[in-house]
Amino acid sequence: MAERGRPPKFKNKKQLEKLIEEYFESCKGHILTDDEGNVMTDKHGNPVYVDAKPLTITGLALALGFNSRQTLLNYQEKEEFMDTITRAKARVEAYTEERLFDKEGAAGARFSLANNFKGWSEKQKIEVDSKLEDLI
After folding, report:
1. Which of 128, 7, 4, 28 has the alpha carbon at shortest distance from 75?
2. pLDDT exceeds 90 at position 92
3. Residue 32 and residue 121: Cα distance in Å, rounded?
4. Cα–Cα distance between 89 and 37 in angstroms, integer?
5. More exposed terminus of the chain, fewer Cβ within 10 Å: N or C?
6. Number of domains in the chain
7. Is residue 79 part of a domain?
8. Position 116 pLDDT exceeds 50
9. What share of the chain is helix, strand, coil (3-state, %, to 5)?
């Protein structure tokens, strides 16, 4: 019997990896230059980037041609693409975690980590390991 459902979006993981790299490159923005083409730097001597975008799971999903973040997560279940998507998500997670250390991005980073990645939560879990008889 023929398999039902949509045909696979990607024929192989190389195709997927290429689009993932293109997404990460597009988020970097470009280096700001003056009218003579000289690279503009910040007070620490680092090049200034403009049009940079934050790395996000939804942004990654859209760049890969998926209609939603959930579709990307579902695609991660396919064995051939699992490692590739897991690594891409880890790169987004690492970026988001780094944002915890700057005051402009900390609140958004906490929200994203708690809602997009396993093991990140601001809820406190209290486990009670006692029997009802011990409480009475």
Report:
1. 7
2. yes
3. 37
4. 35
5. N
6. 1
7. yes
8. yes
9. 50, 5, 45
Is residue 127's pLDDT more than 70?
no
Rounded CA gap, 82 and 73, in Å? 10
Give strand pairing partners of 106. Answer: none
Q: Which of 17, 5, 6 is nearest to 83 (CA)?
A: 17
Q: Going by C-beta distance under 8 Å and a sequence separation of 6 or more, which residues neighbour residue 120?
A: 113, 114
Indicate whether 104 pLDDT > 70: yes
What is the reported pLDDT for 123?
A: 64
Query: Mapping DSSP to helix (H, G, I), strand (E, B) and coil, where does residue 82 land?
Result: helix
Q: Is residue 8 part of a domain?
A: no
Q: How many CA atoms lie within 13 A of 39 on its CB side?
A: 10
Q: Which residues, at least 6 apart from 85, have a Cβ–Cβ distance to it below 8 Å?
A: 16, 72, 75, 76
Domain hosting 84: range is: 13-117
Joined together, the tokens standing for residue 22 give 């293109």
Q: Is residue 5 part of a domain?
A: no
Quick: pLDDT tens for 25-72. 999 999 999 999 999 999 999 999 999 999 999 999 999 999 999 999
In a domain, 20, yes or no: yes
